[in-house]
Amino acid sequence: MENKAKFYITTPIYYPSGKFHIGTAYTTTLADTIKRYKTLRGYDAYLLTGTDEHGQKIQTVAEKNNKTPQEYVDAMAEEAKKLWKEMDIQYDDFIRTTEPRHTKIVQKIFDRFMETGDIYKGNYEGWYCMPCETYFTKTQLVDGRCPDCGREVHLMKEEAYFFNMKKYADRLLKYYDEHVEFVKPEYRKTEMINNFIKPGLEDLCVSRTSFDWGVKVLKDPKHIVYVWLDALTNYLTALGYMSDDETLFKKYWPADLQIVGKDIARFHLIYWPIFLMALDLPLPKTILVHNWIMMKDGKMSKSKGNVIYPEALIERYGLDATKYYLLREVPEAQDGLFTPEGFVERYNSNLCNDLGNLLNRTVAMCNKYFDGVVPQYNGTPNEIDLEFEKFTQEQIKKIEQLYDEYNISIALQEVWVLISRTNKYIDETLPWVLAKEKQIEKLESTIYHLIENLRKIALVLLPVMGNTSKEILRQLGIDNSNLKTWESLTKYNQITKTKVIQKGEPLFMRLNTEEEIDYIKKDMKS
Ligand code: MSP
Asked: Looking at the whole model, is its pTM more than 0.70?
Protein backbone atom coordinates (compact mmCIF):
# COMPACT_ATOMS: atom_id res chain seq x y z
CA MET A 1 0.00 0.00 0.00
CA GLU A 2 1.35 3.39 -0.91
CA ASN A 3 1.65 5.76 2.00
CA LYS A 4 -0.38 8.86 1.24
CA ALA A 5 0.29 12.16 2.95
CA LYS A 6 -2.54 13.03 5.34
CA PHE A 7 -4.63 16.17 5.31
CA TYR A 8 -6.86 16.89 8.31
CA ILE A 9 -9.41 19.61 7.68
CA THR A 10 -12.11 20.93 10.01
CA THR A 11 -15.15 23.19 9.88
CA PRO A 12 -16.35 25.00 12.98
CA ILE A 13 -18.96 23.04 14.87
CA TYR A 14 -22.25 24.84 14.37
CA TYR A 15 -24.72 25.98 17.00
CA PRO A 16 -27.87 24.03 16.31
CA SER A 17 -29.97 26.92 17.55
CA GLY A 18 -31.90 27.29 14.30
CA LYS A 19 -32.12 26.10 10.74
CA PHE A 20 -28.82 26.45 8.87
CA HIS A 21 -28.78 29.19 6.23
CA ILE A 22 -26.50 29.68 3.23
CA GLY A 23 -23.85 31.29 5.45
CA THR A 24 -23.37 28.10 7.41
CA ALA A 25 -23.60 26.10 4.22
CA TYR A 26 -20.85 28.26 2.75
CA THR A 27 -18.31 27.31 5.45
CA THR A 28 -19.01 23.62 5.04
CA THR A 29 -19.00 23.78 1.24
CA LEU A 30 -15.64 25.50 1.30
CA ALA A 31 -14.19 22.78 3.53
CA ASP A 32 -15.72 20.03 1.41
CA THR A 33 -14.33 21.57 -1.78
CA ILE A 34 -10.83 21.74 -0.36
CA LYS A 35 -11.13 18.17 0.87
CA ARG A 36 -12.13 17.04 -2.62
CA TYR A 37 -9.26 18.97 -4.14
CA LYS A 38 -6.76 17.43 -1.74
CA THR A 39 -8.14 13.96 -2.39
CA LEU A 40 -7.80 14.55 -6.10
CA ARG A 41 -4.19 15.54 -5.49
CA GLY A 42 -3.53 12.20 -3.81
CA TYR A 43 -3.89 13.08 -0.15
CA ASP A 44 -5.56 10.99 2.51
CA ALA A 45 -7.92 13.80 3.46
CA TYR A 46 -10.08 13.64 6.58
CA LEU A 47 -12.91 16.13 7.09
CA LEU A 48 -14.47 16.80 10.46
CA THR A 49 -17.65 18.73 11.10
CA GLY A 50 -20.27 18.69 13.85
CA THR A 51 -22.50 20.59 16.22
CA ASP A 52 -21.78 22.73 19.27
CA GLU A 53 -24.63 21.73 21.51
CA HIS A 54 -24.06 23.19 24.95
CA GLY A 55 -24.69 26.59 26.46
CA GLN A 56 -27.34 28.90 27.68
CA LYS A 57 -28.63 29.83 24.27
CA ILE A 58 -29.40 26.23 23.34
CA GLN A 59 -31.07 25.71 26.70
CA THR A 60 -33.30 28.73 26.10
CA VAL A 61 -34.20 27.74 22.53
CA ALA A 62 -35.05 24.19 23.67
CA GLU A 63 -37.39 25.52 26.34
CA LYS A 64 -39.11 27.72 23.78
CA ASN A 65 -39.66 24.61 21.68
CA ASN A 66 -41.04 22.69 24.68
CA LYS A 67 -38.22 20.22 24.55
CA THR A 68 -35.45 19.18 26.87
CA PRO A 69 -32.09 20.46 25.61
CA GLN A 70 -31.09 16.89 24.76
CA GLU A 71 -34.26 16.22 22.76
CA TYR A 72 -33.81 19.51 21.00
CA VAL A 73 -30.16 18.98 20.00
CA ASP A 74 -30.84 15.38 18.94
CA ALA A 75 -33.40 16.59 16.45
CA MET A 76 -31.23 19.46 15.25
CA ALA A 77 -28.14 17.28 14.74
CA GLU A 78 -30.28 15.03 12.52
CA GLU A 79 -31.39 18.10 10.54
CA ALA A 80 -27.77 19.12 10.08
CA LYS A 81 -26.79 15.67 8.83
CA LYS A 82 -29.73 15.68 6.45
CA LEU A 83 -28.63 18.98 4.96
CA TRP A 84 -25.04 17.84 4.53
CA LYS A 85 -26.32 14.72 2.81
CA GLU A 86 -28.38 16.78 0.45
CA MET A 87 -25.32 18.90 -0.25
CA ASP A 88 -23.20 15.79 -0.77
CA ILE A 89 -20.70 16.90 1.88
CA GLN A 90 -18.08 14.18 2.23
CA TYR A 91 -17.34 14.47 5.92
CA ASP A 92 -15.51 11.63 7.65
CA ASP A 93 -16.82 12.32 11.13
CA PHE A 94 -19.57 14.37 12.70
CA ILE A 95 -18.88 15.26 16.30
CA ARG A 96 -21.54 16.40 18.75
CA THR A 97 -20.34 18.06 21.94
CA THR A 98 -22.98 16.15 23.96
CA GLU A 99 -21.43 12.79 23.06
CA PRO A 100 -19.59 11.03 25.90
CA ARG A 101 -16.50 10.63 23.69
CA HIS A 102 -16.29 14.41 23.85
CA THR A 103 -17.58 15.33 27.33
CA LYS A 104 -15.32 12.84 29.12
CA ILE A 105 -12.22 14.28 27.50
CA VAL A 106 -13.27 17.88 28.09
CA GLN A 107 -13.42 17.02 31.79
CA LYS A 108 -9.97 15.44 31.61
CA ILE A 109 -8.53 18.45 29.85
CA PHE A 110 -10.06 20.85 32.38
CA ASP A 111 -8.67 18.74 35.20
CA ARG A 112 -5.26 18.74 33.66
CA PHE A 113 -5.29 22.53 33.32
CA MET A 114 -6.24 22.80 37.00
CA GLU A 115 -3.31 20.56 37.90
CA THR A 116 -0.81 22.49 35.80
CA GLY A 117 -2.06 25.77 37.24
CA ASP A 118 -3.19 27.11 33.87
CA ILE A 119 -6.70 27.32 35.28
CA TYR A 120 -7.37 29.15 38.56
CA LYS A 121 -10.51 30.17 40.49
CA GLY A 122 -11.66 33.78 40.72
CA ASN A 123 -14.62 36.06 40.33
CA TYR A 124 -15.91 37.33 37.11
CA GLU A 125 -17.78 40.47 36.45
CA GLY A 126 -18.34 41.61 32.94
CA TRP A 127 -20.65 42.45 30.10
CA TYR A 128 -22.13 39.26 28.79
CA CYS A 129 -23.50 38.72 25.32
CA MET A 130 -25.94 35.82 25.46
CA PRO A 131 -26.01 34.89 21.78
CA CYS A 132 -22.19 34.92 21.59
CA GLU A 133 -21.86 33.41 25.06
CA THR A 134 -18.99 35.74 25.70
CA TYR A 135 -18.06 38.22 28.36
CA PHE A 136 -16.61 41.55 27.32
CA THR A 137 -14.86 44.28 29.24
CA LYS A 138 -16.45 47.70 29.09
CA THR A 139 -13.76 48.99 26.73
CA GLN A 140 -14.36 46.16 24.29
CA LEU A 141 -18.02 47.10 23.80
CA VAL A 142 -18.97 49.05 20.71
CA ASP A 143 -21.56 51.73 21.52
CA GLY A 144 -22.36 49.78 24.64
CA ARG A 145 -23.19 46.66 22.62
CA CYS A 146 -21.51 43.35 21.74
CA PRO A 147 -18.46 44.02 19.50
CA ASP A 148 -18.99 40.74 17.65
CA CYS A 149 -22.71 40.74 16.91
CA GLY A 150 -23.89 44.21 17.89
CA ARG A 151 -26.55 42.94 20.26
CA GLU A 152 -27.44 43.98 23.78
CA VAL A 153 -25.11 42.94 26.65
CA HIS A 154 -25.84 42.49 30.39
CA LEU A 155 -23.61 43.19 33.41
CA MET A 156 -23.12 39.88 35.24
CA LYS A 157 -20.98 38.59 38.09
CA GLU A 158 -20.19 35.02 39.12
CA GLU A 159 -17.55 32.83 40.74
CA ALA A 160 -15.61 31.31 37.91
CA TYR A 161 -12.48 29.58 36.75
CA PHE A 162 -10.03 31.42 34.56
CA PHE A 163 -7.45 30.33 32.07
CA ASN A 164 -4.16 32.14 32.37
CA MET A 165 -3.90 33.48 28.83
CA LYS A 166 -1.41 36.22 29.74
CA LYS A 167 1.24 33.62 30.46
CA TYR A 168 1.20 32.54 26.82
CA ALA A 169 0.88 35.90 25.04
CA ASP A 170 4.55 36.27 24.15
CA ARG A 171 4.83 32.68 23.04
CA LEU A 172 1.86 33.18 20.76
CA LEU A 173 3.34 36.33 19.21
CA LYS A 174 6.58 34.48 18.61
CA TYR A 175 4.68 31.63 17.02
CA TYR A 176 2.80 34.01 14.70
CA ASP A 177 6.10 35.52 13.75
CA GLU A 178 7.84 32.28 12.96
CA HIS A 179 4.94 30.62 11.12
CA VAL A 180 3.76 32.72 8.24
CA GLU A 181 1.40 29.96 7.10
CA PHE A 182 -0.45 29.82 10.41
CA VAL A 183 -3.05 32.48 9.60
CA LYS A 184 -4.63 33.08 6.22
CA PRO A 185 -5.16 35.76 5.04
CA GLU A 186 -2.34 37.49 6.89
CA TYR A 187 -4.25 40.66 7.75
CA ARG A 188 -6.34 38.66 10.21
CA LYS A 189 -3.21 38.06 12.26
CA THR A 190 -2.48 41.79 12.36
CA GLU A 191 -6.04 42.38 13.59
CA MET A 192 -5.50 39.94 16.45
CA ILE A 193 -2.21 41.49 17.46
CA ASN A 194 -3.48 45.08 17.35
CA ASN A 195 -6.94 44.58 18.77
CA PHE A 196 -6.43 41.93 21.40
CA ILE A 197 -2.84 40.99 22.15
CA LYS A 198 -1.04 44.33 22.19
CA PRO A 199 -3.65 46.08 24.40
CA GLY A 200 -3.03 43.27 26.92
CA LEU A 201 -4.50 39.80 26.67
CA GLU A 202 -7.18 39.18 29.30
CA ASP A 203 -7.36 35.85 31.09
CA LEU A 204 -10.28 33.88 29.76
CA CYS A 205 -13.21 32.86 31.92
CA VAL A 206 -13.66 29.13 31.32
CA SER A 207 -16.55 28.15 33.58
CA ARG A 208 -20.08 29.24 34.37
CA THR A 209 -22.46 28.71 37.27
CA SER A 210 -25.38 30.61 35.76
CA PHE A 211 -26.76 27.69 33.76
CA ASP A 212 -26.32 23.94 33.76
CA TRP A 213 -26.58 22.73 30.15
CA GLY A 214 -22.96 21.79 29.64
CA VAL A 215 -20.05 19.65 30.78
CA LYS A 216 -19.62 19.65 34.55
CA VAL A 217 -16.20 20.41 36.03
CA LEU A 218 -15.28 17.07 37.63
CA LYS A 219 -13.80 18.48 40.81
CA ASP A 220 -16.30 21.30 41.23
CA PRO A 221 -19.57 20.20 39.65
CA LYS A 222 -21.55 23.36 40.24
CA HIS A 223 -19.35 24.79 37.50
CA ILE A 224 -20.02 24.13 33.84
CA VAL A 225 -17.13 24.23 31.40
CA TYR A 226 -17.34 27.47 29.47
CA VAL A 227 -18.60 26.79 26.04
CA TRP A 228 -15.49 27.82 24.05
CA LEU A 229 -13.14 25.48 25.91
CA ASP A 230 -15.76 22.79 25.42
CA ALA A 231 -16.26 23.67 21.75
CA LEU A 232 -12.68 24.16 20.59
CA THR A 233 -11.46 20.85 21.95
CA ASN A 234 -13.81 18.99 19.58
CA TYR A 235 -11.04 19.06 16.98
CA LEU A 236 -9.02 16.81 19.29
CA THR A 237 -11.69 14.66 20.91
CA ALA A 238 -13.09 13.63 17.53
CA LEU A 239 -9.74 11.99 16.81
CA GLY A 240 -9.77 10.13 20.13
CA TYR A 241 -7.25 12.35 21.90
CA MET A 242 -6.71 11.19 25.52
CA SER A 243 -9.05 8.23 24.91
CA ASP A 244 -8.23 4.51 24.94
CA ASP A 245 -7.74 4.59 21.20
CA GLU A 246 -5.58 7.40 19.87
CA THR A 247 -4.98 5.87 16.43
CA LEU A 248 -6.73 8.62 14.50
CA PHE A 249 -5.22 11.29 16.66
CA LYS A 250 -1.73 9.97 16.02
CA LYS A 251 -2.42 9.76 12.34
CA TYR A 252 -4.11 13.10 11.68
CA TRP A 253 -3.06 15.62 14.32
CA PRO A 254 -1.98 18.43 13.85
CA ALA A 255 -4.74 19.72 11.62
CA ASP A 256 -3.59 20.90 8.24
CA LEU A 257 -6.42 23.32 7.70
CA GLN A 258 -9.06 24.71 10.03
CA ILE A 259 -11.69 26.88 8.43
CA VAL A 260 -13.51 29.52 10.46
CA GLY A 261 -15.65 32.59 9.79
CA LYS A 262 -14.32 36.02 10.70
CA ASP A 263 -16.64 36.28 13.73
CA ILE A 264 -14.89 33.39 15.45
CA ALA A 265 -11.36 34.28 14.36
CA ARG A 266 -10.41 35.52 17.83
CA PHE A 267 -11.28 32.21 19.46
CA HIS A 268 -9.33 30.22 16.91
CA LEU A 269 -6.33 32.48 16.49
CA ILE A 270 -5.74 33.29 20.15
CA TYR A 271 -7.42 30.94 22.65
CA TRP A 272 -7.19 27.78 20.58
CA PRO A 273 -3.41 27.89 19.96
CA ILE A 274 -2.87 28.78 23.61
CA PHE A 275 -4.92 25.78 24.78
CA LEU A 276 -2.82 23.62 22.50
CA MET A 277 0.42 25.09 23.84
CA ALA A 278 -0.79 24.37 27.36
CA LEU A 279 -1.48 20.77 26.32
CA ASP A 280 1.97 20.56 24.74
CA LEU A 281 0.48 19.75 21.38
CA PRO A 282 1.58 20.94 17.96
CA LEU A 283 -0.53 23.74 16.46
CA PRO A 284 -2.57 23.44 13.28
CA LYS A 285 -0.66 24.27 10.16
CA THR A 286 -3.14 26.81 8.83
CA ILE A 287 -6.25 28.53 10.09
CA LEU A 288 -8.20 30.02 7.24
CA VAL A 289 -10.48 32.90 8.15
CA HIS A 290 -13.21 33.57 5.63
CA ASN A 291 -15.52 36.50 5.15
CA TRP A 292 -19.28 36.50 5.28
CA ILE A 293 -22.15 36.28 2.88
CA MET A 294 -24.16 39.42 3.42
CA MET A 295 -27.51 40.61 2.15
CA LYS A 296 -28.21 44.05 0.70
CA ASP A 297 -29.59 45.14 4.06
CA GLY A 298 -26.80 43.62 6.15
CA LYS A 299 -26.71 40.31 7.99
CA MET A 300 -29.25 37.61 7.34
CA SER A 301 -31.89 37.52 10.01
CA LYS A 302 -35.36 36.11 10.31
CA SER A 303 -36.74 39.39 11.60
CA LYS A 304 -35.51 41.20 8.49
CA GLY A 305 -37.06 38.53 6.30
CA ASN A 306 -33.88 38.17 4.26
CA VAL A 307 -32.74 34.64 5.07
CA ILE A 308 -31.87 32.21 2.29
CA TYR A 309 -31.77 28.51 3.03
CA PRO A 310 -29.63 26.25 0.87
CA GLU A 311 -32.41 23.71 0.31
CA ALA A 312 -34.53 26.28 -1.53
CA LEU A 313 -31.75 27.07 -4.02
CA ILE A 314 -30.70 23.46 -4.47
CA GLU A 315 -34.22 22.29 -5.13
CA ARG A 316 -34.81 24.81 -7.89
CA TYR A 317 -31.36 25.42 -9.39
CA GLY A 318 -29.41 22.30 -8.46
CA LEU A 319 -26.54 21.65 -6.09
CA ASP A 320 -23.74 22.65 -8.44
CA ALA A 321 -25.18 26.06 -9.29
CA THR A 322 -25.74 26.75 -5.59
CA LYS A 323 -22.22 25.73 -4.60
CA TYR A 324 -20.75 27.68 -7.50
CA TYR A 325 -22.53 30.85 -6.47
CA LEU A 326 -21.58 30.58 -2.79
CA LEU A 327 -17.93 29.85 -3.44
CA ARG A 328 -17.56 32.43 -6.17
CA GLU A 329 -19.17 35.26 -4.22
CA VAL A 330 -16.97 35.35 -1.10
CA PRO A 331 -13.46 36.53 -1.94
CA GLU A 332 -10.55 36.50 0.49
CA ALA A 333 -10.48 40.23 1.05
CA GLN A 334 -14.11 41.18 1.57
CA ASP A 335 -17.62 39.99 2.33
CA GLY A 336 -19.71 38.54 -0.44
CA LEU A 337 -23.15 39.78 -1.32
CA PHE A 338 -26.13 37.56 -2.00
CA THR A 339 -28.71 39.12 -4.25
CA PRO A 340 -31.43 37.31 -6.21
CA GLU A 341 -30.41 39.39 -9.23
CA GLY A 342 -26.77 38.35 -8.85
CA PHE A 343 -27.70 34.70 -8.49
CA VAL A 344 -29.80 34.62 -11.64
CA GLU A 345 -27.23 36.66 -13.56
CA ARG A 346 -24.38 34.30 -12.63
CA TYR A 347 -26.53 31.32 -13.49
CA ASN A 348 -27.48 32.61 -16.91
CA SER A 349 -24.24 34.21 -17.91
CA ASN A 350 -21.54 32.04 -16.30
CA LEU A 351 -23.16 28.64 -16.22
CA CYS A 352 -25.66 28.65 -19.03
CA ASN A 353 -23.90 30.88 -21.60
CA ASP A 354 -20.17 30.63 -21.00
CA LEU A 355 -19.89 27.01 -19.91
CA GLY A 356 -23.09 25.35 -21.15
CA ASN A 357 -22.94 26.82 -24.64
CA LEU A 358 -19.27 26.04 -25.04
CA LEU A 359 -19.96 22.37 -24.44
CA ASN A 360 -23.02 22.39 -26.61
CA ARG A 361 -21.32 24.03 -29.56
CA THR A 362 -18.29 21.78 -29.28
CA VAL A 363 -20.31 18.57 -29.18
CA ALA A 364 -22.47 19.78 -32.06
CA MET A 365 -19.45 20.63 -34.24
CA CYS A 366 -17.75 17.33 -33.49
CA ASN A 367 -20.91 15.56 -34.60
CA LYS A 368 -21.39 17.69 -37.64
CA TYR A 369 -17.85 17.58 -39.01
CA PHE A 370 -16.55 14.23 -37.74
CA ASP A 371 -19.61 12.07 -37.03
CA GLY A 372 -18.93 12.52 -33.35
CA VAL A 373 -15.49 10.91 -33.37
CA VAL A 374 -12.88 13.13 -31.71
CA PRO A 375 -10.42 13.96 -34.49
CA GLN A 376 -6.82 13.03 -33.92
CA TYR A 377 -4.50 15.92 -33.47
CA ASN A 378 -1.12 15.24 -35.01
CA GLY A 379 0.55 18.01 -33.05
CA THR A 380 1.52 20.06 -36.09
CA PRO A 381 2.24 23.48 -34.64
CA ASN A 382 -0.06 26.17 -35.81
CA GLU A 383 0.29 29.63 -34.39
CA ILE A 384 -3.21 30.05 -33.04
CA ASP A 385 -3.19 26.58 -31.47
CA LEU A 386 0.23 27.01 -29.93
CA GLU A 387 -0.75 30.28 -28.35
CA PHE A 388 -3.97 28.69 -27.11
CA GLU A 389 -2.14 25.72 -25.60
CA LYS A 390 0.34 28.01 -23.89
CA PHE A 391 -2.39 30.17 -22.43
CA THR A 392 -4.28 27.10 -21.20
CA GLN A 393 -1.22 25.63 -19.49
CA GLU A 394 -0.42 28.88 -17.73
CA GLN A 395 -4.00 29.34 -16.67
CA ILE A 396 -4.14 25.82 -15.23
CA LYS A 397 -0.98 26.48 -13.24
CA LYS A 398 -2.55 29.65 -11.88
CA ILE A 399 -5.75 27.82 -10.91
CA GLU A 400 -3.78 25.05 -9.22
CA GLN A 401 -1.82 27.57 -7.18
CA LEU A 402 -5.01 29.31 -6.09
CA TYR A 403 -6.48 25.98 -4.99
CA ASP A 404 -3.27 25.30 -3.08
CA GLU A 405 -3.66 28.64 -1.33
CA TYR A 406 -7.34 27.82 -0.57
CA ASN A 407 -8.40 30.86 -2.55
CA ILE A 408 -11.39 29.22 -4.13
CA SER A 409 -13.28 32.33 -5.17
CA ILE A 410 -10.39 33.62 -7.27
CA ALA A 411 -9.65 30.11 -8.55
CA LEU A 412 -13.19 30.02 -9.95
CA GLN A 413 -12.74 33.45 -11.44
CA GLU A 414 -9.67 32.13 -13.25
CA VAL A 415 -11.52 29.02 -14.43
CA TRP A 416 -13.95 31.38 -16.11
CA VAL A 417 -11.07 33.25 -17.72
CA LEU A 418 -10.10 29.90 -19.24
CA ILE A 419 -13.67 29.25 -20.35
CA SER A 420 -13.90 32.68 -22.00
CA ARG A 421 -10.57 32.16 -23.73
CA THR A 422 -11.82 28.83 -25.03
CA ASN A 423 -14.96 30.50 -26.37
CA LYS A 424 -12.76 33.14 -27.99
CA TYR A 425 -10.74 30.38 -29.66
CA ILE A 426 -13.87 29.41 -31.61
CA ASP A 427 -14.13 32.98 -32.89
CA GLU A 428 -10.44 32.98 -33.81
CA THR A 429 -10.48 29.68 -35.67
CA LEU A 430 -13.95 29.90 -37.27
CA PRO A 431 -14.45 26.12 -37.65
CA TRP A 432 -17.41 26.54 -40.05
CA VAL A 433 -15.17 28.49 -42.44
CA LEU A 434 -12.46 25.82 -42.14
CA ALA A 435 -15.10 23.21 -43.00
CA LYS A 436 -16.37 25.15 -45.95
CA GLU A 437 -12.84 25.66 -47.25
CA LYS A 438 -12.02 22.03 -46.57
CA GLN A 439 -9.03 22.88 -44.42
CA ILE A 440 -9.42 19.51 -42.71
CA GLU A 441 -6.16 19.40 -40.81
CA LYS A 442 -6.84 22.75 -39.19
CA LEU A 443 -10.43 21.79 -38.47
CA GLU A 444 -9.28 18.56 -36.82
CA SER A 445 -6.87 20.47 -34.67
CA THR A 446 -9.50 23.04 -33.68
CA ILE A 447 -12.13 20.52 -32.63
CA TYR A 448 -9.49 18.47 -30.85
CA HIS A 449 -8.31 21.51 -28.89
CA LEU A 450 -11.85 22.44 -27.93
CA ILE A 451 -12.55 18.99 -26.59
CA GLU A 452 -9.22 18.89 -24.83
CA ASN A 453 -9.89 22.22 -23.13
CA LEU A 454 -13.36 21.19 -22.06
CA ARG A 455 -11.85 18.08 -20.51
CA LYS A 456 -9.43 20.31 -18.61
CA ILE A 457 -12.19 22.70 -17.57
CA ALA A 458 -14.21 19.74 -16.26
CA LEU A 459 -11.23 18.59 -14.20
CA VAL A 460 -10.46 21.94 -12.60
CA LEU A 461 -14.14 22.26 -11.72
CA LEU A 462 -14.33 18.80 -10.19
CA PRO A 463 -13.76 19.86 -6.54
CA VAL A 464 -16.56 22.45 -6.78
CA MET A 465 -19.09 21.10 -9.27
CA GLY A 466 -18.71 17.36 -9.30
CA ASN A 467 -21.95 16.56 -11.13
CA THR A 468 -21.35 19.12 -13.86
CA SER A 469 -17.79 17.92 -14.38
CA LYS A 470 -18.90 14.34 -14.73
CA GLU A 471 -21.63 15.37 -17.15
CA ILE A 472 -19.14 17.28 -19.30
CA LEU A 473 -16.83 14.26 -19.43
CA ARG A 474 -19.78 12.00 -20.21
CA GLN A 475 -20.91 14.18 -23.09
CA LEU A 476 -17.37 14.25 -24.42
CA GLY A 477 -17.33 10.47 -24.22
CA ILE A 478 -14.25 10.44 -21.99
CA ASP A 479 -14.26 7.41 -19.75
CA ASN A 480 -10.59 6.53 -19.63
CA SER A 481 -9.70 7.06 -15.97
CA ASN A 482 -6.19 8.24 -16.91
CA LEU A 483 -7.79 11.25 -18.51
CA LYS A 484 -9.66 12.15 -15.33
CA THR A 485 -6.69 12.66 -13.02
CA TRP A 486 -5.27 16.00 -12.00
CA GLU A 487 -1.90 14.95 -13.43
CA SER A 488 -3.47 14.56 -16.86
CA LEU A 489 -4.15 18.30 -16.90
CA THR A 490 -0.72 19.01 -18.30
CA LYS A 491 -1.10 16.50 -21.10
CA TYR A 492 -2.19 17.06 -24.66
CA ASN A 493 -2.69 14.62 -27.41
CA GLN A 494 -4.07 11.80 -25.26
CA ILE A 495 -7.72 11.57 -26.26
CA THR A 496 -8.05 8.64 -28.62
CA LYS A 497 -10.99 6.74 -30.08
CA THR A 498 -13.45 8.86 -28.12
CA LYS A 499 -16.93 9.47 -29.47
CA VAL A 500 -18.94 12.38 -28.13
CA ILE A 501 -22.64 11.91 -27.43
CA GLN A 502 -24.93 12.30 -30.42
CA LYS A 503 -27.07 15.06 -29.15
CA GLY A 504 -25.63 17.50 -26.62
CA GLU A 505 -27.89 18.10 -23.66
CA PRO A 506 -27.85 21.53 -22.01
CA LEU A 507 -25.88 21.58 -18.76
CA PHE A 508 -28.01 24.45 -17.44
CA MET A 509 -31.37 25.64 -18.75
CA ARG A 510 -31.65 29.35 -19.28
CA LEU A 511 -33.65 31.05 -16.53
CA ASN A 512 -36.32 33.65 -17.01
CA THR A 513 -34.70 36.51 -15.10
CA GLU A 514 -37.79 38.33 -13.78
CA GLU A 515 -39.58 35.16 -12.77
CA GLU A 516 -36.64 33.71 -10.90
CA ILE A 517 -35.77 36.92 -9.09
CA ASP A 518 -39.36 37.02 -7.86
CA TYR A 519 -39.19 33.39 -6.86
CA ILE A 520 -36.06 33.86 -4.73
CA LYS A 521 -37.41 37.03 -3.14
CA LYS A 522 -40.62 35.27 -2.17
CA ASP A 523 -38.66 32.41 -0.69
CA MET A 524 -36.63 34.83 1.45
CA LYS A 525 -39.81 36.17 3.00
CA SER A 526 -41.45 32.82 3.73
N1 MSP B 1 -20.35 27.16 17.61
C2 MSP B 1 -19.52 28.20 17.18
C3 MSP B 1 -18.24 27.67 16.56
C4 MSP B 1 -17.45 26.78 17.45
S5 MSP B 1 -16.06 26.12 16.64
C6 MSP B 1 -15.18 25.39 17.84
C7 MSP B 1 -20.23 29.07 16.14
N8 MSP B 1 -21.27 28.53 15.51
S9 MSP B 1 -22.20 29.29 14.44
O10 MSP B 1 -23.17 28.33 14.06
O11 MSP B 1 -22.66 30.52 14.98
O12 MSP B 1 -21.28 29.68 13.23
C13 MSP B 1 -20.58 28.71 12.54
C14 MSP B 1 -19.86 29.23 11.32
O15 MSP B 1 -20.78 29.75 10.37
C16 MSP B 1 -18.89 30.36 11.63
O17 MSP B 1 -17.65 30.08 11.01
C18 MSP B 1 -19.54 31.56 11.02
O19 MSP B 1 -18.61 32.49 10.58
C20 MSP B 1 -20.27 30.93 9.85
N21 MSP B 1 -21.30 31.81 9.35
C22 MSP B 1 -22.45 32.19 9.95
N23 MSP B 1 -23.08 33.08 9.16
C24 MSP B 1 -22.35 33.32 8.05
C25 MSP B 1 -22.52 34.06 6.88
N26 MSP B 1 -23.58 34.84 6.69
N27 MSP B 1 -21.60 33.95 5.91
C28 MSP B 1 -20.53 33.10 6.03
N29 MSP B 1 -20.33 32.39 7.12
C30 MSP B 1 -21.18 32.56 8.18
O31 MSP B 1 -19.82 30.19 15.94
From this structure: yes
